[in-house]
Amino acid sequence: VNNHRLLGQIKKTQNTIEFLRQTWLFGESISTPVQSQIAQKMKIRKYEKGASITCEGLMLVKEGKVELSDIGTKMQNRRNKVVEKGGFWGCEQMILNKALNSNAIALESSFIYSIAETEILEQIPIVRWKFLEQAHKRA
């Protein structure tokens, strides 16, 4: 394993799997091999306070807080939602086949995972169910 420098990648994947297991979205009824596949597709990025976050597939908060606010609505009608550690957004695009109509801003220094290749997520029944639940809550 050390000869091929895979140890770092294995540890990174294992740490990501541990995080996934602590989330509401991925914490139950998902096999370790599938969790490993998901973890390997995840990319992490740090955003400083006030930074705008571009939605790239499914977005998951590892650390920090993100504010989602509707685009194109008048200030008095604007709905804001704060997403914290373990929370996610972007499922509306996959489930409802509609463009995301919200801005995401880091409320504090935050580490955000993105999963751009979402096909595997759409094959997991419990995850699809949770996507539907969240999409309808936010619609």
Describe the structure in your own words.
- The chain is of the alpha+beta class and 139 residues long.
- The protein has one domain (2-138): Jelly Rolls (Sandwich).
- Helices cover 35% and strands 25% of the residues.
- It has five helices and seven strands, in the order H-H-E-E-E-E-E-H-E-E-H-H.
- The chain has helices at 6-21, 32-41, 91-95, 119-122, 125-138; strands at residues 43-47, 58-63, 65-70, 80-84, 88-89, 102-106, 110-115.
- It has a four-stranded antiparallel sheet with strand order 1-7-2-5, covered by helices on one side. It has a three-stranded antiparallel sheet with strand order 4-3-6, with no helix packed on it.
- Helix 1 (6-21) packs across helix 2.
- The longest helix is centred in the first third of the chain and has 16 residues, at 6-21.
- The protein is globular, with a radius of gyration of 16 Å.
- It starts with 5 loop residues before the first helix and ends with a helix.
- The model has no long low-confidence stretch (mean pLDDT 86).
Jot down its keywords:
139 residues; alpha+beta; Jelly Rolls; 3-stranded antiparallel sheet; 5 helices; 7 strands
